[in-house]
Structures are given as C-alpha cells and as structure tokens.
Amino acid sequence: MTDTLTAPSGESAVLETVPRGFLAHDWQPATGGRTFEVRDPATEEVIATVADCGPQDALSALDAAAAAADQWALTSPRDRATVLHRITDAMTEHRERLARIITLEIGKTITEARGEVDYAAAYFRWYAEEAVRPHARSTPSPDGTSHIVTVAEPVGPCLLITPWNVPLAMAARKAAAALAAGCTAVLKPAALTPLSSLILGELARGAGAPAGVLTVITSSDAAAVTAALIADPRLRKLSFTGSTPVGRLLLQQSGARVLRTSMELGGNAPFLVFDDADLDLAVREAMIAKMRLGGQSCVGANRFLVQEGIADAFAGALAERMASLRVGPPDREDTELGPLADHRAVDKVRHLVEDAVARGAVVIGTADIPDGPGHYAAPTVLDHVPADAAIMHEEVFGPVAAIHRFSTEAEAMAVANNTEHGLASYVMTSHIDRARRVAARLQAGMVGINRGLVSEVAAPFGGVKQSGLGREGGPEGLHEYQQLKYLSMPGFNT
C-alpha cells in the first residue's frame, strides 16, 4: 500500500491507496481513522478507500488555508502564474493516469475522460495567463479634486464544492481561478468521485503550491463538513456546483455571515429545432448536447422542442443515432456510453421514461445495455412528449431525449422559458435574425447557436433564475475571487 493514488495495472481495477486524504498539504488520516469506499459504477466493485473527514478535519484544513492566505496573496502574480503553469504541465504529463481514474470512479468513457483532463488542464493554463493581467483602473474624479484608484484584491480563504459528473474539470475551474486571484482554497469533492481531486492536490504540491494553498477534504457527510466551514469567520468565499435544492440551503447558511458565494446549480436546457434548421447539423449537435457525459450534465439538452415541419425527420434521425450507440465498459476504446453514476440515477431515468409514456409519449429508439453488474441505462428517444410530463420539468441526468413538438416561434419560447431554471439553451436555425431574436428572448445564461457545446475556458459559465449566481471561466471567473478596493487620492490639481 502507498500514500498516493496509482493508476490501475494489468487486469486489476483496484487502486492502491491508504485510507487518507490530502489534508493540509499532505496525506493524513481523518480523525478517528474513519473511511468510506469508492465504487466503480461499471462493476459496482470497491476501487478505493479514502479518508472520511468530519467537521474537525474540515476546520484543520481551513487552519492551513488561513495560515497560508496572507503570504499567497502577497505572492507576485507572475509567481502564482508559474505554479499554475506547472500544474498544467503536470496534468498533461499524467493525462492517462488521471483519465483512467476518472473512468473508474464515475464510469465516463475513457475517450471522454481524456477530454476532461485536457479541459481541466486548459483552465490552469488560462488562469496562469489571466493572473498577470491587471483588472483595475486609475482616473481623475469629475471635479478634479481627487484621483480614483481601484485595486482588485483576493477575497481570502475559499471553500470549493464540486460535483461528481465532471470531477476533475470542475475542481480545476474553481481552483485555478481562486489560486490565480491569490486566494487559498479548501476543495471538497463529491463522495462518489474523490480520487481525481486527491491527485490534483498531490500535483499542486509537486508544482510548488505552498502548504495550505490547496487542501482537499473527502467526506461522506457533506452537510456537517460544509456547515462547520461556512460558520467559521475565516472563510470568505463559497463556490458550489450542484443541485438547486442544496444550493438554496447553502445560500441560507451563507446569508447568516453575508458570505460571498458563487452558485452553479441545476438546469433544464431546451434544444430548439426550427423548420429551417440544417437537419444533419441539428442531429449531430443534438447528440453532443444530449450525450456529453452520458447525459449527466447540467447544461445537457433536457427538452427537445422541435417545429412540426421538421419533427418527423429529426425524430427519426435522432432515434437511429441513439439506437446505434455502443454501450458497455467505459475503459474500452470503442465504447460510446458507459454506466450512470449509481442506482439512484438509473431509477430516476426509468421513472421519468415511464411517466412520459403513461402520459402519451412514444418510445421510438433505444439501444441495448450490457447484462450483469453496472448502473447502465438504455439510450432512449421519446417522441410526442406532452408538456405536463415530469421529464419536461426535471433534469433527467441520463441518456434520454424527450421531443416535444411545437407550431410557432411564440409557442416554442413559452415552453422553453416555462422552468425555474435558466442555465443553458440551444437554438438550431439557418436564419441569423431568428437566432438573434430567439437568443435574446431565452431566459438562460448561455445560448448555443447551431452548436451543442457551450463550455469554453475563456467564456463565462453560469445561469439565471434558480440556476445560480456568478460566473466561472473567462476573466469573469477570476473576478469572483477578488474584491474591489477604492483608494481616494489627492487630485493632480490640488
């Protein structure tokens, strides 16, 4: 047994670990030696045992972050950027190791896992470059009696809570921005997927991040750990990606301390296909928007709103493509869809499909899934889904495409915006005027026009309504970890 996570070798799918977490810049056990197991969703076998941190461990991690905060904030932007560049290089060097672990802990296909590693590394590269770009201004006051200087400063120690569906890239998106801004951070990954975050902590230390700058705590009791950290006055920022109900609870807890927050919450993305859309393009981009991460994405297309003139052709082509997907073990190079996260995800998909069919929807395409163990759900296309079906109002978070037909643009807009969420939307049309008009009316933080992928390291990622607060990625993501200070100086004419 070793203190670090290692890539699987030979036929074994079990990782060599000790029951420890990456606490305060080193591998340490949780208080009382508590542990929890990590299972492979493709086989349901235990692949690792990690530290089950409690509130005391969380506060110890915050001790380290608070102790390092002043020195890291005073570190020059160039030196912080150097550390981030080294992390980028380390992630690139360990690309296959990281990808294999992502595949093991969440069941993502190995091809997509490699893409996630590249995406995660790109965030560290972007924020290494962004760290040295000034975000301040200096200008005389209108009356000339003073000079206005603004300075962007790090907010201080941060708590970063990441989801299980994109475990490495979401940790990178938050940690890279926080570290670039001069903040220290406590990273708490989801209990389903702690392994890639533990490796990130290890790589950050090897890249020269000082002790306490990035600490990773793993826990099966997220509520107790986060409550203890949020209540501590040394914590100055919370960044959370996850469900809207949990986000609401964290906002309530944060409100007692007026804690600065960023929230990337649930989505219910509409994918609008108008009669004038290019059919082949629409189907290709629909597969990207729906099946990225196996359908387990907050920005994934949840509702396919298709105009009547193209609906038959689109539904048939999409059903044919979904039925042809190769579902199987995610570590195989030719697999296109692996398992879902756990049995609860499979049960939810089944329930939503059954509800839609009971209300009049028709199953027009489905693929086979493997026999035996594993949390697999069949890729499925539902046509003629009524507006009152549960799948039109809940995130399916699985490989099910629900098609609802519409007649007019006004009808499409009413259905698209009939949700408490507003994260992403997609529009397929050949008319630029319609694209602009519809995009302007969609109540969403991000709109993909004739493309099914909106995530980009240089762009602001986030939503409106109950899909969250703040933005990640781009220059805007750095600002989330900075506070503005205004200096009033004597004017040049005084």
Structure description:
With 494 residues, the chain is of the alpha/beta class. Helices cover 38% and strands 20% of the residues. It contains 14 helices and 20 strands. The strands form 5 sheets. Strands 14-15-16-13-12-17-18 form a 7-stranded mixed β-sheet, with helices on both faces. Helix 1 crosses helix 7 (222-231), helix 3 (95-106) packs across helix 4 and helix 9 packs across helix 10 (308-323). The radius of gyration is 23 Å and the shape is globular. It starts with 20 loop residues before the first strand and ends with a strand.
List strands and helices in order, with pairings.
Elements: E1 21-23, E2 26-28, E3 35-39, E4 46-51, H1 55-74, H2 77-93, H3 95-106, H4 110-130, E5 138-140, E6 146-154, E7 158-161, H5 167-181, E8 185-188, H6 195-206, E9 214-216, H7 222-231, E10 237-241, H8 244-255, E11 260-264, E12 269-273, H9 279-291, E13 301-307, H10 308-323, H11 343-358, E14 362-366, E15 380-383, E16 400-406, H12 409-416, E17 424-428, H13 432-441, E18 446-449, E19 468-469, H14 474-479, E20 482-490
Parallel strand pairs: 7-8, 7-10, 8-9, 10-11, 12-13, 12-17, 13-16, 15-16, 17-18
Antiparallel strand pairs: 1-2, 3-4, 5-6, 6-20, 11-19, 14-15
Helix pairs in contact: 1-7, 2-4, 2-5, 2-6, 3-4, 4-5, 9-10
